[in-house]
Hints:
- By secondary structure, the protein is of the alpha+beta class.
- The chain has one domain (9-103).
- It is built from 2 helices and 5 strands.
Amino acid sequence: MMVPESGKVYLALGNTDMRKSINGLSILVEGQLGKNLFSGDLFVFCNRLRDRIKILYWDQNGFCLWLKRLEEHRFRWPETEAEVLEIDQRALAWLLAGLDVSQAHEKLYYHQVT
């Protein structure tokens, strides 16, 4: 998959109608998620059966829409009450590989004590 290395990854939690294309998903990003479509960030959507994922992003001069359909198994889509979940590129790769991103370790931040 050719996606930008920089930028954030946002999962639109819940179910998304996979009949939506670039225009319909763009409306969801700006309207429901309240995010900037032209930021270069990745916006990830999953269907009710958890066998399809679409990724929408802006790439310099146009939108890119990427689709993955599983022939067997299901994506381990996070179950949470939030509308959107921010993850990193590594967690996205795990999700696409069939791993559960909620079981990954959180990044630790250390502060210097003076």
